[in-house]
From TrEMBL:
Pfam families referenced in this protein's UniProt entry, alphabetically: HIT
PROSITE patterns listed in its UniProt record: HIT_2 (PS51084)
Residues in HIT domain copies: 10-117
Chain location of the short sequence motif Histidine triad motif per the record: 101-105
Protein name per the record: Histidine triad (HIT) protein
UniProt-listed InterPro entries: Histidine_triad_HIT, HIT-like, HIT-like_sf
Molecular functions (GO terms): catalytic activity
Taxonomic lineage from the root: Bacteria, Bacillati, Actinomycetota, Actinomycetes, Kitasatosporales
Highest taxon above the source species: Bacteria
Catalytic residue positions: H103 (tele-amp-histidine intermediate)
């Protein structure tokens, strides 16, 4: 069923507490934790607890939950005292997606180039 936990999904395992992570925020519907391979002084991943393969699938199935993820990205930025930050959703392997559970990267704490590489 859409949104159900997947046994083979790393981020579902983090949600379930079966894989450790440095959690910085948690709500009823979302978890935010530090990326294991940070690309900036702040690099936090915000995920819905429900499993959707990417941001578009999440937004199509549960728009309110997609909004929760965006709200939490701002909450992370506030907690980390970031005036500027970038929110990234990689969709598809050609764009660098490696984990097939929707997640927002929240990056900040250094200058960020635009356009990105
Ligand atoms: P993607 O490449 O799919 O957009 O982002 C996946 C992110 O998950 C990568 O930035 C990667 O460093 C991070 N990641 C992969 N495995 C783990 C893990 O076990 N723990 C944490 N905290 N982050 C992970
Ligand atoms: Zn998952």
């Amino acid at each position: 069923m859409a949104g159900e936990p997947q046994d083979d999904c790393l981020f579902c395992k983090i949600v379930g507490g079966h894989v450790p992570a440095t959690i910085v925020r948690e709500t009823e519907t979302t978890v935010a934790f530090r990326d294991i391979n940070p690309q900036a002084p702040t690099h936090v991943l915000v995920i819905p607890k429900a499993h959707y393969e990417n941001a578009a699938a999440l937004a199509a199935a549960e728009p309110a939950l997609a909004a929760d993820v965006l709200r939490e990205a701002q909450a992370v930025a506030d907690e980390e005292k970031l005036e500027s930050y970038r929110t990234v959703f990689n969709t598809g392997s050609g764009a660098g997606q490696t984990v097939w559970h929707a997640h927002a990267h929240v990056l900040g704490g250094r200058g960020l180039q635009w356009p990105p590489g």
